[in-house]
Design goal:
Blueprint (H helix, E strand, L loop, with lengths): L1 E5 L8 E5 L9 E11 L1 H8 L12 E2 L3 E9 L11 E5 L11 E5 L3 E3 L6 H5 L2 H14 L7 E5 L4 H13 L2 E6 L4 H6 L4 E4 L5 H4 L3 E6 L6 H5 L3 E9 L6 H6 L3 E4 L6 H12 L7 E6 L3 H9 L6 E5 L4
Parallel strand pairs: 9-10, 9-12, 10-11, 12-13, 13-14, 15-16
Antiparallel strand pairs: 1-2, 1-4, 3-5, 3-7, 3-16, 5-6, 6-8
Amino acid sequence: MKAMVIHQYGAAEQLQLAELPLPIPGEGQVRIKVAAAGVNPVDFHVRNGLLKDTGTHQLPLVLGWDAAGVIDALGTGVQAWQPGQEVMVFAPIGGQGCYAEYICVDADLLAAKPSQLSMTEAAAVPLAAVTAWQGLFKVGQLQPGQRVYIHGASGGVGGFAVQLAKARGAFVYASCSARSRDYVASLGADVCLDYQQQDFAEQLTELDLLFACVGGNQVLPRALPTLKSGGRLISTFDEIDPALAQAQGVDYQRMWVQPSGADLKQLAELLQSGQLRVQLDQVWPLHQAREALARSESGRALGKVVLQLAAD
C-alpha cells in the first residue's frame, strides 16, 4: 500500500511517499480502507521530534491519526462491525498513523460515519472534535451558564470547541483574527476577540474555564488572572508550573487527548442531528502531505486540513 512516512525526524523533506506491506488486523481489530485522513498539529510536532526520545514510535512512521473510510477486513472476535461499513476513527497516537491507504485499529474506537458527511468531512472530525469534547467536558467540566474563553477558536479544535460549548449552554468568548471573525461568530461565539488588536488578559475576568487550543505568546501565565477562584485552565500543548495556578486558586491541567469510540459516537450523533458542523480549510492529495502539513503549521487554517485518498 502507498503511505506517507518519515524514516527520521526533522523538517518537511523527511516525509516521503513509500510502499508498505498491507497491515493485517489482529484480534478485536478492523482494517479500514482509508478514504481521507485528517491533518492536525500533532502530526508536524511528531515529525519534528516531539516524542523522539520517549520510545513511543518505531521508524519508519506513518503520520496522521484520524481518518474516515470503509471497513475492509475484520480480525477475530469482531462482531459489531461488518466489511463495507463507512466509519471514522481517532487512531492511537502511539501507533502507526492514517496517511496511508489502509490502517488497522481496535474496533471499539470506531464510530459510524454520519450519513450527510462526505468522507473528507468525516476525516476532519475525530481527533480535533474528541480533543474539544474531552477538554471542555471531561477535563474542564464545563456546565450550562458558565463563562468560557476558547483561545484559538478558528482552528480545528477551537472550531469544534466553540460549537460544543455553545450547545452545552455556556457563554462563549473566542479569540480569532479579523478575517475569521464572521466564521467564529457563525459557530456560536457570543463575543469574538481579535487577538491582533485585543488582549484577552485585559478584556476578561471571572471566567469559569479557559481552554487554550493553541500555544505561544505566554498564554497560560497571562490567563491566570482572568479566571475566578476555582476556575479551570486547560491547555492542549503549552505547560505552566502548577504551583503558579494553585497560588491563584486555579485548577490547571495540561490535557492529553485519548482515543475514545464512546466520545466519537456522541459527536457523530451531534453531527447527524445538525448540532455540529464541519469546516474544511484545504484538501490535498496524499502525495502532497508536505504541503498539507505546511498549511497546518502556518497557523492560518480556517477549520481542518485534510488529505484525500479516494473520491467522495
